[in-house]
# Entry
Amino acid sequence: MTIKTPLVIAVDGPAASGKGTIAKALARHYGLPHMDTGKLYRACGLAVRLAGHDPYDAEAAADAAKAIDATLLDDPDLMNSLNSDYASIVSSHPAVRAALFETQRAFAQQPGGAVLDGRDIGTVIAPDALAKLFVTASPEVRAQRRHAELAGRARETGGADQTLADVMADIAARDARDSGRSAAPLVRAPDAALLDTSDLGIRAAVDAAIALVERARQHGGR
Ligand code: DC
# Structure
């Protein structure tokens, strides 16, 4: 009898690297469920903000993380840049990470496999994932992508647009916080394949990601 190892794909990387788009496309390609784990931290940040708490208050943030309201996951403010900051700050508290661990771990351990994207999937949530990708792009390219995305959203909602320089500064601050924190910082797992999407369009980036997953499957994840 052969035991089939479930296909778990861990996709990590910094903001606007393309990891979310790639993770969604991989999930579609392999017919796997997908979890954007950043949304959990964003929902926690939004709950803290709506309650008027300070995101640096670890206790208030952990209480919010223990009682994530699923409706917040679809809130239009979830993805905006103020909430990106709140999410990044609350995510630095170990108690917040501990509160959100089980949900992510259970998703990763589904018998049929799964795709998860975030910052610590290959290192903490699913260290035994069969395929691990670390998706990155230059800070300039990431800022341009996020700027275009925010401008599109501002056009739809009539909200204020941000300058490219502001977006660049936001991303740099978030990178420094996400990589510099002591609890599960953003780092490339030693066994993660690096995918730099700076010069790749969406189709080419997804094709490259599929090729890397296939290679990991052939080598049994090694
Ligand atoms: O992926 P994102 O940009 O939507 O994530 C928002 C913030 O959440 C990010 O700045 C850091 C945090 N995060 C994290 O610490 N660990 C994860 N697995 C996913 C996100």
DSSP finds nine helices and five strands in the chain. The domain at 7-220 is CATH 3.40.50.300 (Rossmann fold). The longest helix spans residues 139-157. Residues 15, 37-38, 41-42, 84, 87-88, 91, 118-120, 174, 178 surround 2'-deoxycytidine-5'-monophosphate (CB under 6 Å).
